[in-house]
Amino acid sequence: MDKGFTIINNVYTAADVEQIINCINKADADKPTFRKSDDLFAIRQFLKEVPGVFPLIFNDRLKAIINEFGSGYFVTKSIYFDKPGLSNWFVAYHQDLTISVCKKADIPGYGPWTVKQNQFAVQPPLDILHKNFTIRIHLDDTDQYNGALKVVPGSHLKGIYRPETIDWTMEQEHICKVKAGGVMVMSPLLLHASNRTTNQQKRRVIHIEFSNVDLAGGLNWSERIDLN
């Protein structure tokens, strides 16, 4: 991933996608990890809250993609995003600089800390973020009109890259169009953003983060799921 991302279509068939959506629709939406608004429906700790999707998501094609990164990778975080067709939700350029852990601890190189929905998040040392990757599974065709990710290719190689310092005379923006059943694989350090929806089409995405790193000082990944 020289550019910090790649798009792979046809990881799931139309029937696979339908099965995944049906499984999500049966979930109990009254839990605190479920966020509902006019602009966004989200399920945090997704694989924990909707465990029935696990065998549907981790098919042989997805496992092969994960194995391309090497051995020992496990899930560290999972979120489901459903952006309705009339959504005004947008996300400004940012990097995914934090990881979810089980507790707060004073460990050199880890910080700052935040807490969201009783879950601790911390910015780890940069070398951990360089080893991690994210897979975004698309359940709808996604383009610039319904909130496809915009990215700055190569930005993952520039360390912590503050959006306000982007020099657009030097950088280029790329729209990541993905078909339903396709995936986008990306570095958490890749600068990315998304626009408001303008074509009244839904955008449903499953966001899963992976690592093969054990954390320092007795810290544990709060959503760790081993794949072997």
Q: With helices defined by DSSP (H or I, 4 residues minimum), what is the helix count?
A: 5
N-to-C CA distance: 24 Å
Largest sheet: 8 strands, antiparallel
Q: Would you count the extended β strands for me?
A: 15
Radius of gyration: 17 Å
How are helices and strands ordered from N to C? EHEEHHHEEEEEHEEEEEEE
β-sheet strand percentage = 25-35%
The name of the CATH superfamily reads: q2cbj1_9rhob like domain
Residue share in helix: 10-25%
The assigned structural class equals alpha+beta
CATH class: Mainly Beta
The CATH architecture can be given as Sandwich
Descriptive account of the structure:
- One of its GO terms (molecular function) is 2-oxoglutarate-dependent dioxygenase activity.
- Keywords: Dioxygenase, Oxidoreductase.
- The two termini are 24 Å apart.
- This protein has one domain (5-130, 154-226): Jelly Rolls, CATH 2.60.120.620.
- It has helices at residues 14-25, 46-49, 54-57, 60-67, 126-131; strands spanning 5-8, 34-36, 41-44, 74-83, 91-94, 99-101, 113-116, 119-122, 133-138, 149-151, 174-175, 183-186, 192-194, 203-211, 225-226.
- The radius of gyration is 17 Å and the shape is globular.
- The chain contains five helices and 15 strands.
- It is of the alpha+beta class and 228 residues long.
- A hairpin with a 4-residue loop joins strand 2 and strand 3 (41-44).
- The strands form three sheets. Strands 1, 2, 3, 4, 9, 12, 14 and 15 form an eight-stranded antiparallel β-sheet that branches. A four-stranded antiparallel β-sheet has the order 5-13-10-11, with no helix packed on it.
